[in-house]
Automatic annotation (TrEMBL):
A Pfam entry, by short name: ADK
GO CC entries: cytoplasm
Reaction(s) this enzyme catalyzes, per UniProt: AMP + ATP = 2 ADP
Gene: adk
Annotated binding of AMP, by residue: 31, 36, 57-59, 85-88, 92, 129, 140
GO molecular function terms noted in the UniProt entry: AMP kinase activity; ATP binding
Top-level lineage group: Bacteria
The UniProt record lists the keyword ATP-binding: yes
Residues engaged in binding ATP: 10-15, 127, 166
Native source species: Corynebacterium lactis RW2-5
Keywords: ATP-binding, Cytoplasm, Kinase, Nucleotide biosynthesis, Nucleotide-binding, Transferase
Name of the protein in question: Adenylate kinase
Location of the region described as NMP in the Swiss-Prot/TrEMBL record: 30-59
HAMAP family: Adenylate_kinase_Adk
Length: 183
């Protein structure tokens, strides 16, 4: 399966992606994790991305798309993948379509995690990541509303909407039930 997960910061995409990746047998590709790994290793990509991430802004599309392109070219992504945190702009979605077109494939579905703002803030403050200060969280939400939410219209024919409140297991069960309907 080739899936994209969409939802506001703190919606639980990463948590669900890790479980779904095991169950579906496809790699979990998180652009946030890839950036953080590059920052940790001090690569040129990490150095370039850090100031954007620290401020809660998006890393420029060209940098992000190149990173995803090389990750999708790896062997384990040949038969499917779960993209978590990419695309985050309509421009990135267009680039993804182009990349997949070159590989002769398309997305099967776009899973939207639907969650209230109160729950999102609670979850982010609980995980305590470096970019989870109140000011940066606010900016990431603003960026989500402005840059990423338009993807929901863009992908309207592929959206599978999941009520993403409740326990991790409940949300996973709902997601698996919806994905099983696609088969
Ligand atoms: P995440 O782990 O998905 O919350 O991403 C953490 C941060 O990495 C975001 O706030 C952005 O600064 C950056 N980032 C992750 N994915 C993307 C993307 N697709 N495009 C641009 N920036 C991204």
């Amino acid at each position: 399966m080739r899936l994209v997960l969409v939802g506001p910061p703190g919606a639980g995409k990463g948590t669900q992606a890790a479980i779904l990746s095991e169950k579906l047998g496809v790699p979990h590709i998180s652009t946030g994790d890839l950036f953080r790994a590059n920052i940790g290793e001090g690569t040129p990509l990490g150095i370039e991305a850090k100031s954007y991430i620290d401020a809660g802004n998006l890393v420029p599309d060209d940098v992000t798309v190149r990173m995803v392109e090389s990750r999708l070219a790896e062997d384990d992504a040949k038969n499917g993948f779960l993209l978590d945190g990419f695309p985050r702009t309509v421009g990135q979605a267009d680039e993804l379509e182009r990349l997949l077109g070159n590989l002769g494939t398309t997305l099967d579905a776009v899973v939207q995690f639907d969650v209230s703002e109160d729950v999102v803030v609670e979850r982010m403050l609980a995980r305590g990541r470096a970019d989870d200060t109140e000011e940066v969280i606010r900016n990431r939400m603003h960026v989500y509303d402005n840059e990423t939410a338009p993807l929901l219209d863009h992908y309207s024919d592929k959206i599978v909407k999941i009520a993403a409140e409740g326990t991790v297991e409940e949300i996973n069960d709902r997601t698996m039930a919806e994905l099983n309907k696609l088969k």
